[in-house]
Structures are given as structure tokens and as C-alpha cells.
Amino acid sequence: MPDPLFPTLVAGAAKEALRFGDHVLTYDELAAVAGGLARELPPGRVAVWATPTVHTSVAVVAALLAGVPAVPLNPKIGERELAHILADSEPALVLAEPGADLPAGLAALPHRDISLSGGKALVADEPDPESPALIVYTSGTTGPPKGVVLPRRALATTLDALEDAWGWTADDVLVHALPLFHVHGLILGILGPLRRGGSVRHLGRFSTEGVARELAAGATMLFGVPTMYHRIAGEVGSDAALADALKRARLLVSGSAALPVCDHQLITAATGQQVVERYGMTETLMNTSVRADGEHKPGTVGVPLRGVELRLVGDAGEVVEDVETVGEIQVRGPNLFTEYLNRPDATAAAFDGGWFRTGDMATRDTDGYVKIVGRKATDLIKSGGYKIGAGEIENALLEHPGVAEAAVTGEPDDDLGERIVAWIVPSGEPPAADELADHVAKLLAPHKRPRVVRYLDALPRNDMGKVMKRALGA
């Protein structure tokens, strides 16, 4: 029989498992309430209204205990996207916290409130490792969202590889404030501590005060996205309590998008801590990470995790062997998804033999550290015969004192093929376009300077803090 996904939950323990504000559940209590719910779940699939609450965590754990695939729903989802996901995944039931304000699109679906009391631990055989655990929908940037079918095998493999890379143990207490409808917040941030037998404290809403409070009160790890670490970087130099709390942390992890090098430097200067970056996708879960016991190289996402094979592939399909040469990341390993739900065409197109085409462009250095330069579709700019990654230009722009936020895209140019466009949120009086172009040319190379500069009040971002560059183009 396969090993259980959550050994401590099966064995039982009086230690704290989940804390969301005043809601605290020990492993024994979580086993009881999730086990009771698991007994009542219908066959098929269940949708989970994934608010950042302990109720969402209980619902997902219950589905995993029952062997019923869970479909997390973003509470900010729009009508059209919700209708597509429900028609595509056909859940038999929606689970939600009591009193949740559910949209009209869910009215036709049977609904059940998630209770935090009563119940009895479920004693059942562990489902097959290849059976679906979660169906997580992509952001749908190139069409309707696709349902990524993640098997139990992928969850266990990726979390155990992170145990190896980060020295993650049952003694670790994780603090985060990430959404629970996505891989980062749900799988890494909730299921990760539960698989290790550790604890997680969710802030509900991110604040530097909350981070400082929990790290000062015994939390050992912090997971965040770059927008959160940017807030920390902006405050840590003048906030002694925040700096002292961060110094106590065993591990600070950033993911879901690249963390600017300048933010790395500000945090390290104030705390002595070096933020670890990792790289993953919904379809692959985690692929690479800077190891806790390895060399930290800001601006890179580390080396392949245990069990993950990674290669870079050029435009003609050739494997890129040269150091610092750009290629598309392709990966294979037990961390990969099974399929796109109801989309055999898209599943087949996503693979090159047994290798998954990530669409992310990167280089590797002599030590094998991966540096992502951007998405193939939006972040690789071909200008004047050069392949230029938007990420390095964004990092250079952020080193200018007049730049608070920056995004870089390409647009058609009759002479260059594409010209580099910088989208800038100024930190005060907007710096002149020529000044920014000269700044980039000095730090990088003249052909990487922006030819056009556009100023914005804010960059369009999704719920994970990623800049939506297609919205900039529109």
C-alpha cells in the first residue's frame, strides 16, 4: 500500500497543525474535522471556494483523505471564467466557509458549509499515487483557463524534494499570507507543512507587522512573492523590529515571479539573511531552487531539485550546452502533471517527447544555476539581431533611484525587429527617458537600453503579484 500523503495526520499528534488568526487546529483536531467531511464527500470532483481561511485547508485535506479531486476556485473569479471552470470540471459539490458570499454562478451547484467541529478521523487505504489530487486552473493568458490535473505522486515528490533542498523538518513553523487557490499558497504553503508534520500560520492578509510578529514568536520560515518582499525591502532598513524578526528566520523563500536583485540586497544589508528563490509552474510544481546549504546567487532560481531533469532548448530544437546562452526550459520528472483536463490536444502540444515545454527562457552558469530571463511569448525580445531577456533590463531599471516599479516589453520596429519598451512607475518626479536609457546602457550594454519609456501609476498585476504584460500591450 502507498505511504500516506500526511503521515502525522494519520498517526495523530496533539501539536499545532494550522493557525489562521483565532482558528487553531492540532493534528488530532484536523484529522477529526477533515475525516468527518471526507466521509460525506460524493464521488467525482468537489469545488472549493478557496478563501484564505482554515476552512479552505480543511476542505482540501478532506478531499485528499477521501481520494476525491479538489478544484480550488479563486474567490475573485469573474463570471465567464467561473462558468468555464464549472462546465469543464463538472464538480458534484462546492465547499465553502460558513457565510461565504458565493456568486450566482454557483447557485445551481449543491453547497456545503465547512465545519471546524465534530467529526472522526478517517481510516482508509491511501489512494493510488497516480490518482488525481487537485485540478488547478491556469491563468488563461492564451485562451480559456486549462485544468491542470495534478496526481498525488506529484505533490509528494515535489514536497519531498523541497525537504531535501531546504532542510525542511517537523520542527519548522511556516508563516505566509498567500492565496489558497494556487500551487504556491496551497500546495507549498499548507500541504507542505502538513506533509512534514510541522505547522503553518497564515496571516489572512499580508503585512510586515504580521510577518514580524510571527517570526518573533517562533516561526522559522517565510514564503512570499516579490510584491511582499518588495514591501519588506522598503521598510526593513528603518524598522528595527522587522529586521530583528527576519534575522531569527531559518529560511526566507520567494517565488511565483523573479525577485529584483536590488530587493535581495536591501534585505541582506539590513538582516544578513539571503532570500532563497525557487522556480515552478502549475504543470510541474517545483523544478529548481537555491539550496539552503548551497551558494546563494541573487537573480538565479538555483539548481534542479532532486528527481528533476532540466535542459535548455534553442529555436531550432537543439539542446543548448553553452554557458550563459538563452534557451527554453524543458523539464521531466515525477513532479509533472498528468494532463490538461479534457484537452488531449493541449497536453500533447505541451511535450517534446517526455520533456515538458515550460515556455520560460533561461541561461545556466558554470555551476548549473538557472537564471530565468522571461517568458518566451512576452519576455524574450529580439532586437537588432540580439536575444534580450526583459528581466535583466527590469533589474537594471530598478537600480535607478527614480524608479519604484518597472516592466519591460517589446513592440514591432521596422528597423530593429522589436524595440525595447520600459513601463515605469516612478518613485517621485519621473526621470527622463534619456536618463533611464543611459542608465541601462551603462549597466548592461547599449543594445539593451529602452527605446521607449511609458509612465504609469501602477503596473497591472494578478493575485500572485505577477505583472500582466499582455495588459500592458493592450
Give descriptors for this structure.
about 475 residues, alpha/beta, Rossmann fold, GMP Synthetase, Chain A, domain 3, five-stranded antiparallel beta sheet, about 25% strand, globular
Description:
InterPro entries: AMP-bd_C, AMP-bd_C_sf, AMP-binding_CS, AMP-dep_synth/lig_dom, ANL_N_sf. Belongs to the ATP-dependent AMP-binding enzyme family. One of its GO terms (biological process) is fatty acid metabolic process. It comes from Amycolatopsis mediterranei (strain S699). The protein is α/β, with parallel strands linked by helices and 474 residues long. Among the domains are: 7-186, Rossmann fold; 380-473, 2-Layer Sandwich (GMP Synthetase, Chain A, domain 3). 30% of the residues lie in helices and 27% in strands. The protein has 14 helices and 26 strands. Strands 2-1-10-9-11-12-13-14-15 form a nine-stranded mixed β-sheet, sandwiched between helices. Strands 16, 17, 19, 20 and 21 form a five-stranded antiparallel β-sheet that branches. A hairpin with a 2-residue loop joins strand 22 (380-383) and strand 23 (386-389). The N and C termini lie far apart (53 Å).
